[in-house]
Queue: 2 jobs
Job 1
Amino acid sequence: MELAIEASGLERRFGSFVAVDHVDLAVRRGEIYGFLGPNGAGKSTTTRMLCTLTSLSGGRATVAGYDVARQPGQVRLRIGAALQSAALDIQQSGAELLRQQGRYYGLSQSDIDTRLDELRGLIDIGDALDQRIKTYSGGMKRRVDLAAALIHNPEVLFLDEPTTGLDPASRAKVWEEVQRLNQDLGMTIFLTTQYLEEADALADRVGIIDHGRIIAEGTPAELKRSIGADVVTVRVNNVATAASTIAALPGVDSVEVRGDEILAATADGPGNVSPIAVALAGADIRVRSLTLREPTLDDVFLTLTGEHLDVEGEAA
Amino acid sequence: MSALQTPVRPNETGFVPNARRTPLSHRPAGTIEARPAGFWADLWSVALRSMRALPREPELLIPSLIFPVFFFAVNIGTLQDFAQRGIPGLDYRAFQLPTAIIFAVTGVSRAHAVVTDIQSGYFDRMLMSPVRRLPLVVGMMAADFVQIIILSVPVILLGMLVGVRFETGLLGLLLFLLISGFWGLAFTGFSYAMALKTGSAGMVNTTFMLFLPFVFLTTATLPLEALTGWMATIARFNPMTYLLAGLRSLLYGGWQPALLLQAAGAILLVGVFSIGLALAALRGRVTRG
């Protein structure tokens, strides 16, 4: 199996603070790997080390087969990256910036023309490509940023929270493009995100990082299955009594109270909805709502860390 | 790591030494892909971008012109009669032109653009590209050189308009421009060092503080022989004194190689120090990430 990204004991310290703590990664060629975690978990620092932007305090890593510390020039030729904020020179036009980017990567004038034509569909901003970037909307900037990362046809693409701050339409466009790049071109994509739905929708495998350490890894389905098949969500007034009533039922694996909401993890959701409703009625507890759903990656994160992924403006 | 899954781990797949690994090569033949552009191509790419920005930011050029023109006019208006009476044979307008040029070109740089690039993340984009590290700074300095020459021309024209002539002729004028350009370039290193070290526009502006002792504790307003006490002592150790002497020699006194060599030495001294600081700051930024 060919690995596009491989890391062993990757570590980054800033003084006494350990931002990335012995992270191991093995991302297969042609895979979309979702790197999921809350703010400050170490996602971006890991990405910056893999992109040769931040030096390693310990461990080692290869990207596209080259060592990031000893062969950074070879790595840079083979990677593209769209980091957290759109990294653009707003005084240039979109076309100027992409041409400039092409020159940085040693492309000839005709190669740059060809790539610009190929990327127009992705950028999708029409004549605005010749206007200064400072006049662009946030979504337009993001798309030009992504195009800049792709101008040289990288083997491995790093996307660090590529849809943060985008409207739903722009976000859908980016998701679509990420899937197309992966499926049509076989591009390996390392996708850092704090959006659960984004990781769920795009990633072949997900690594969950918290406090600098990877705490779980697998396909989204595997991760969700690992905490129980279903989640029954109940809204009641008397939360404490209701939680203990539900926890006492056979077939309920665990109970989590979140505000006025109780989350009951169970292997057989449909089979346990009725017993939960009956038990609550028997305890004279008025049920305001009762729903059954599949577990989310947030449930996985909650199970592993005891905390929720606290994300402003969850992906639409 | 939880026991949730049995993920692919490097120790399971075998993390073999990099030298033995096979780099990925899945792309079909003919696919456009990156290649190292070479030092000069990198330098040109970076310089081209910086030069393209010059006409888009005229607001940065205009103050650099107002300042020297203002001081040129004020110094001549207030000191010309006094200086020429005290020092027979002195053409104070010619004496002041190099000072005006120094005011115009010292501290002119694209360092603020580096700060903008750092803050916007564009500098990271350049660092992630295969562009060599040295052209990232030197390329911007090449654009600075062009900008400095552009600023020097109107100041020289103003001097000529009020009667200043180059005794060394056209060649002297061109050398005057080149020396001014290289001095401006030598001084840019301080601004780039501060920009790369701090990523702060405010801190870049503090390099202006360096400008003051360089420009005022020297022969900017009066010749060395007219200075006394501590001022004369400091002026003797200030590289600017020798730079001004070299520039003035091209205006009056004819070709004086010794003075020109001293001016070149002053530029070299300041340039090696300031550009050394800038490259050290670049290395620090690249290393610490």
Job 2
Amino acid sequence: MDYLWLVIATVITLIAPFAVAVLAGVDRRITARMQNRVGPPIMQPIYDLMKLLAKTKMLVNKGQIILATLYVTMSILALWMFVAGADLLIIFFVLSAAAAFYTLAAYSVLSPFSQLGATRELIQVLAYEPVVLMVFFGVFLVNGSFSSAATDNMLILWLPLTFAAMILVLLVKLQKSPYDVAEAHTEIVGGPEIEYSGKFLALVKVGHWYEAALMFAVISLFFGHPNLYIAFAGKLILVFLALFIVILVDNSTARLRFGQMARVVLTYGLALTAVNALVVWAVQEGVIPWP
Amino acid sequence: MQLIETLALLTILLPTLGALLAFPAGDKARKWVVLAFAAAIILVGGVMTLMFLYEGKGAVDLGKDSLGVDINAWVWGITALDLALMVFLLYLGARSRSIIAVVAAILQMVIVVGFEAWHGFGEAPAMPFVLDRLALVLVAVCCIIGSLIAVFSIHYMEGRAKKGRFFAFVFLFLGAMNGAVLSNELLWLFFFWEVTTLCSYYLIFHDETPEAKASARLALEITLWGGVALAAGIAYAGWKYGTLEMDKLMGMGDLAGLGLVIPALLVIGGMTKSAQVPFQSWLLGAMVAPTPVSALLHSSTMVNLGVYAIIRMAPLLKLYLPLSYTIALAGGITFAATAGLALTQRNVKRVLAYSTIGNLGLVVMCVGINTPASLVAAVFILLFHAVSKGMLFLSAGVIDHELGTKDIEEMGGLSERMPFVTMIIVLGSVSMMLPPFGLFAGKWLSVEAATQMPMLLLLLGVGSAATVLYYTKWVGRLISRTHATPKPAEPLSMYYKVPLGAIAAGILMLSILTPFFANSFAFNMLPAGYASPHGSAAADLLASNSYIWIGAVFLFLAAGLALPIALVAVKDKDKAKVYTCGEDIEPQVAGHYFGGERTETTLTDLAVSVCAGLAIAVMLLPYIAEVF
């Protein structure tokens, strides 16, 4: 373990949310274009955040803020671990800790919307977590280890179906239609987030950005190349491609009910990853001849 | 006799003596008997554990000359008690009018007496007891958690009838559990095993309501048949291989064909004790018993004994991998199915019961995968599950005792009414599912081991996500609160606070010591024929770099707790009401139970039929191995 690398990882972790904020800005612009609008400036998410930070403090109970902070620290930790090259499995568990704290924060206020949102959030966890585990397993099959450190392997060629499953997870994690059932602003007015305001809402938003950063980091794992520049460019293109697909799906579908959401994500996600893993295994074992 | 050998024997004899004294004592005297013996057992178990660790031993062998009295006295004593016990179990079966239990009791008797007649009554074993690392884990848990549960029961059982019988069986249970775990002689293991059957019967029976009687009867039926499997396995081992000692049996690397019936039978016996699907129904029925009984069954005694036997069988299962993998599959399905079943439950004791079955299923799965790392995972999960589950059940007991409810939906706002208990439950639940607490290390290892059988990975993924769901749902209900000034909490009895606080401290300590535990203890406890678990990434990380990762988790958790506590000051003017569309009420939304009983029935049927198929396959595989 190189300690210098831990420092670099920390720096990357610190600037990651800004990168995601820019991606979110791009998202809003593309979405606007798809809807024949002009859209806000690319930096709008940052402006929004600054404005939130300047608002008067208001909260329902302190317990919720503590749990929300735990959610944010766990999200940061997950990303930091990923950048530092930890085991994907420990990241998986930290991620589920983040999700648990986020839901607990929502449960801690006696608002019907928050409570409903929390339950839906949990059902989302039930839907995407097994898929994430299988995605990590796909990475393990090709790379031969659960390390999150980048390799030269071109995973996207080995794992196209797993990549598609990862898009499903991304849709859920970015709260995009058709899987925005927990937050569902037009239905349960923001669900788990309804009782945050001002700087606490900003805090939770930063947490989401970290989670999104981790998801994009996993996406970037699918492109690898011995040449550093090609690898970097390829990873970036892959991330934008994933983002574009997500935006496209978001704008062309309506929200599912949470039962449907769980069924679709779980069945398709697991089926895609399992079939892909089976094929990779068959190729590796020589069952399917490969040039 | 060395001190550690004496202490090991005391872990069996002391609880038995406690049982004999607690039974006839009057109410006041009994309290002191229970306290004194609980303290003594904890002391003996604790000192023994520390001595074992300090001396860095692999195992302490208690040969036939180190049992204090003449070995023949032991042999004849245990043989006589065993016969008496089997007759008594037959009587219990007849009394509860269960033809199934009667047949099982008769079969046991035929097998054991028949075998002893063939083998020669009263033959002294060379090595009656062995205290090795695996046994140490179980004995330590049993002594410490079990005694704390006994202390807890003093207050819980106040005002209930037949306390003498209750505490007698609690202590006897602890002694029998230690005896079974320490026994190297298989017939002795069988004797102690059947004593635990007797104890569990009476503890479930305790309230003597029709429901309690029916549940006790069910438990008797299932565990007696498990005993039949165990007896048959032992008799077959003695008949075919001429050995009745565990260490010799383990050393048989050439067990093949029909010989595999021995591990198969012992695993089936273990599955009944550990209430693995398809034998899970008795443990759910056992929920009618007073809550400390559940804590005892689920954390320190009964169910651990089953998986203990299964872990012991690992080297034999390894000789024929199809058998081992079938068992792994049964364990994985048990884990996923019970996690799903727990989602449908409103009764917190049933949620916890399903969680127990599932976690032990995980242990069985790890044994079935049968790699060095997976065996270490099995022990990790066994240990940390026992500690956390004991604490959770006791907390559920406090809630039940103080508020009179087991329904999760009625526990809203418990954090205001009972902050201490809520904290304990939060810690317990978090330690059951999330890093950095011990169970997570076991899960981590087990997920990595499951990459050998990707199908298990699917089951694991679904199961652990569902685990997060049902624990979070419960804790979420407990902590939902408003600004309303907390009602003055009723002072909890010290009999509640001390055991709960002690176990909580134990969990924190064990979690911090995880890397140490892995490195200097768990990784060296594998039976002969297993390489060190190093080479598995998770094991390597646990052993070396884990202070970075696990330390980071602790650090970030601490930061997440400390920062808002320190920085966010809440004044009255900052407080807001929740948004309720302008209504001046705080409506509460009930949790989601995935169709409740209907789903439970469907899922149970499905899991039972699949696992019953697998159990039959486990029994048939030795024949297949013999023929092909």
